[in-house]
Amino acid sequence: MFQRRAKTTLMLVLIAAPWIAAHLVLKKDVSAAPHNDDWLYARSVQVLSEDGRYQHVTQHGQLAASVVSHVGWGWLFTANEFSYAGLHRSQAVAGWLVCCFLFLLARKLGSDTGPALVAVAALLVNPLFWGHTFTFMTDITALMYMSAALLCFVSSQNLQRISYLVAGSVLAALALWSRQTHVLVILVPLVVLVFRRNDFSLLQIGLRIGAITCIPVIAWGVFEFGLLVPGDQQRVSIISVKQWDTAHAKQAGIYLYGLVLLMGMLLLPLAVLALAKIRNRNETPMPVNWLLAGVVLLGPLAILFWTGGRGVITQSVGYFLQNAHFGPVLFADLPHADGSWSYLGDVKWTPLVWQVITVLSILSGACVVACATVKTHRGQRFEVPSNRHHWRFGLIVLMGAEIVFMVTMVTNIVDRYWLVLFVPVLLWVVTSDAMRKSVHLRRPAATMLWLALLLLGFISVAFTHDWLVFNNQRWEQMTEWRNSPGVEAHDIDLGADFNGWLRTAEDYHSLQRPGDETRSWRGHATKALAHRDRVGWDIVAVRRWRSWATGKLQKLYVLEKRTAN
Predict the structure, then answer these.
(1) Could you give the CA distance from residue 364 to residue 272 in angstroms, rounded to a whole number?
(2) What span, in angstroms and rounded, lies between the C-alpha atoms of 292 and 371?
């Protein structure tokens, strides 16, 4: 037992080492700055740290995420002194904990150390997951709470230990208070309870249902009826089933297609293991498995060719799919020639690169499906837990519920919303009959595995670096202007996120400045930062930075509004 715990501890340390090293490398020359919508949550943390009270801040009266437990998590890292560096440190820790929870879950559900570590590596190098650990968006925090809740449920010894179920429900409630959709994790132990209903009396079943659901239901009620966050902000009840028509059905299809690509990219390292497993006679997929794999393969490929190669992974699900950036570039009044508003200057790869990555993602998804759906052959025996398949079926129910909820009830699905599926998907794959046991990889397969990890790692590190440096340039320019005599917050236009950060410093409640009807608080601006020239403005300076993704020097123009003669 001691040796096993020591080995597990060593694995967790090994997970932390490259994580910390990479974060230090990327953060060495980059100051912390707002990213996407995290300025909303950052301001709440600042008020909590400095004034000792909770202040909910919303953009244009909209409350997309519940964020309360997310703000609390950020406060733990900024209680002594508020800083964006502290907030981003909180997400680095949260991301590392998610990786640790995934590893522990995989081991508890019967996976060998090798496949479990490959699953962790696949998550760690995934650009969408990795990039968001450098922000203060709610997604990583919510995933941390959800993964911790799932670990408590799985550790309950076949639902025998009520204390673990209660702990899991508390964590599920915290997940609800970060992002509402993550509370669906309670479906997993409920599904297992259905399978194991004969092990308990009626009273015991009721006690376990209450332990699993009572706290999340109370947490929902406290939030829904304004007992936690005062005011008439948008609540969970605002979400309603879409009115389905041809347009909505088409959009749902686009979302699902993008989801397939995103999951394929996530599973790319595991596809190497799948190929190695398929070579094993006892684990060869049956015709039905090949049929499932064929659907996953041919369907997306048909869509890709039908779109003329334009339906690549960077064009299908939200902001990451705008050429691997981790949030919108909010210079919305300066569109590119092609109409896009999300490109990071000239930091972009050719469509051919993304077409190749898209095809690889489709192939990896098909390989993993073919292998992960293989059933145990007669004569094969598995170790504990005996109810592993019950938990895996619970994961399927969870994933299905999340997808149905997203497609039917969420108006605009962006890529980061699908992070909720990353841990369940990886866990389901790596604990499958064929995938959970270690396999000796021959040199070609080992090379392919390392190439897959290096490819995803390069995308993650390079594009994250560029995103951080871009925002750092904006932060430095904002600091320079704010330190200039006579320059007020309303004089500055650095993009909607930075403008929002400056606006909330003036007023938490008013959604607009007097006389400014723009959604990005730039109606009074006389100074601006932009990728391109602007009619009626003069270029007074140029800020330069080098992209790791392209190796090219990038420019940002410092503009001043021309005064009327």
Answers:
(1) 8
(2) 10
Q: Which residue has the tokens 């210079």?
A: 331
CA end-to-end span of the chain: 82
Rounded distance between C-alpha atoms, residue 104 and residue 11, angstroms:
10
Handedness of CA 116, 121, 127, 132 (dihedral sign): positive
Q: What is the pTM of this model?
A: 0.91
- The secondary structure of 150-184, three-state, reads HHHHHCCCCCCCHHHHHHHHHHHHHHHCCCHHHHH
Residue 249's contacts (CB-CB under 8 Å, 6 or more residues apart) are none
> Could you tell me which residues come within 8 angstroms of residue 50 by beta carbon, excluding any fewer than 6 positions away?
82
Angle, vertex CA 320, rays to CA 21 and CA 445, nearest 5: 60
Max Cα-Cα span within the chain: 90
Taking 3-state DSSP, the helix, strand and coil percentages for the chain, each rounded to the nearest 5, stand at 60, 5, 35
Chunked into runs of 10 residues, the chain (565 residues) has average pLDDT values of 64 73 70 83 91 78 74 93 89 92 93 91 92 91 97 92 95 93 95 92 94 94 75 56 74 87 93 79 65 79 84 72 70 52 75 90 87 60 62 94 88 87 95 84 87 92 89 92 90 88 80 78 88 86 92 92 75
